[in-house]
Amino acid sequence: MKLLIINGPNLNMLGVREPDIYGTGSYRELCGLIERTARELEVEVEIFQSNHEGAIVDCIQQALGRVDGIVINPAAYTHTSVAILDALKAVAIPAVEVHLSDVDAREPFRRLSYAGMACQARYAGLGVQGYVEAMGYLKRHGG
Ligand code: DQA
C-alpha cells in the first residue's frame, strides 16, 4: 500500500507560523513523524508540500494509478478551492482531510471545506497526531 501526504500553503512554515495555533514543531519534524508512522503501518509514503494551488491539483492528478490513499491538509485552500475538490473527485482515490487546528472553533470562514466534500474522514484539532490518525484510517479502509 502506498499513501500520498499533501500539505498546502504555509505548512512549510510550521514552528515559525502562529505557534500558539499550529504548535512549535517544524515541518521537518512533521515529515519525520509521517515517515515513522508509515514504517509502523508498513506502508510506503510520499510527502508533497506546495504553496501553489495548481501544483497541488497536478500532484493529485499524477497520483492516479500510483497511490492507494491520500491524506490532505489543503491549509487555506481548504476553504476556497473547488479545483482541489474536483481533482480529488476526478481521481477518486480514498482521501482523508487533516487540520492541525480545530477549524470549526475558529473564524466562521474556516468552517467551509471544499476538499472535505471528497474525503471519507476528517481529523482536526489534534495537531500532528491528526496525520497519524488519518494514515491509520487509510490503512484500515483504503485501497
Ligand atoms: C489548517 C487550517 C486552515 O484554516 C489554515 O488556513 C491553515 C492550516 C490547519 O492545519 O489547521 O493554513 O489547515
Would you kindly provide a written description of the structure presented here, covering whatever features stand out?
There is one protein chain. The protein contains five helices and five strands. The protein has helices at residues 19-22, 27-41, 53-62, 82-91, 129-141, and strands at 2-7, 44-49, 69-73, 95-99, 121-124. The protein has a five-stranded parallel β-sheet with strand order 2-1-3-4-5, with helices on both faces. Strand 3, helix 4 (82-91) and strand 4 (95-99) form a beta-alpha-beta unit. It is globular and about 35 Å long. 37% of the residues are buried. 1,3,4-trihydroxy-5-OXO-cyclohexanecarboxylic acid binds at residues 10, 73, 75-76, 78, 99-101, 103, 110.
Indicate the topology.
Elements: E1 2-7, H1 19-22, H2 27-41, E2 44-49, H3 53-62, E3 69-73, H4 82-91, E4 95-99, E5 121-124, H5 129-141
Parallel strand pairs: 1-2, 1-3, 3-4, 4-5
1,3,4-trihydroxy-5-OXO-cyclohexanecarboxylic acid binds next to loops.
In short:
The chain has 143 residues and is of the alpha/beta class. It has helices at 19-22, 27-41, 53-62, 82-91, 129-141; strands spanning 2-7, 44-49, 69-73, 95-99, 121-124. 1,3,4-trihydroxy-5-OXO-cyclohexanecarboxylic acid is lined by residues 10, 73, 75-76, 78, 99-101, 103, 110.
